[in-house]
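Input/output pair, single chain:
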Amino acid sequence: MNAGPSPSAPIVLTCGESAGIGPDLCISVAQAERALPLVCLADRELLRERAALLRLPCRIEEYTPGVAPARAAGELTVLHVPLERPAVAGRLDPRNAPWVLRLIDRAVEGCRRGEFAAMVTAPVQKSIIIESGLPFTGHTEYLATLCGAPLPVMLLVAGPLRVALATTHLPLRAVPDAITRAGLLGVLTVLDRGLRSLFGIARPRIGVCGLNPHAGESGHLGSEEQQVIEPALHSARKLGLDVHGPIPADTLFVPRNLEPYDAVLAMYHDQGLPVLKHAGFGNAVNVTLGLPIIRTSVDHGTALDLAGTGRAEAGSLLAAIDLAAVLGARAP
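Output:
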């Protein structure tokens, strides 16, 4: 059961993989005065050590529920979750993998009971979580399981460009079998609902990519468009959704062809994300639709080679925090 957050409820930020740039980004966020109340979920000693490594000021304040978080430059309110082992920038340690998931668990718990208005996540390292023996396919899927959400939809936002994914973290050879009529109809329904309720679009127009080159070339380059995608779009139109396609991806992503659409649905991860990241990398935001809470995230990974160097840029995290605030205010 979700309890609505109070108007003054803070946004919660999970710092992600302890060896990656997540802690660096949290320290960077603390360098400027903030208009929004923010609580960082992290190990306080990790943040102090990383701030010293970066030679940036950061006074840590302990989080107390109901007490307004610090907003001044150089200050950060932290909900302390202790690491299993000391973390070294750039050096993964599977013993800290459960800690990464505990941050997510605590953030979701707080959002669901109204303690936090929304959650923003710094990047995690999927490989080290899996190598630690924990079942994990990605932030999106893990959040859906925690929330009991049957169909999460990944939506990437870069300015006016919005790209959703019909499938997420799958090997390419598994994608065609994962695309079904019912599944596509469900994704389109979640996407349409999210664009209406969170982005304030009264009647979203959605362009849908084909799976195969040339959208199957009338069946000569694949049958999925004719047998799966077109029937799913027909069912969506019967439900009142304004959907168009299937359109070849290399045609749909031409700028003038994108103009009529409020969002694009790509069939798989690397069909849609390269275009979006080319358009807005470093300032794009990942939004998870279909959850009972607001969750945004960065558009990049843990960048282990940049951790502790001072070269990691916080633009995407800042954009994710700003968008979380906007979506949280619009959420029904």
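DSSP finds twelve helices and twelve strands in the chain. The first strand starts at residue 11 and ends at 14.
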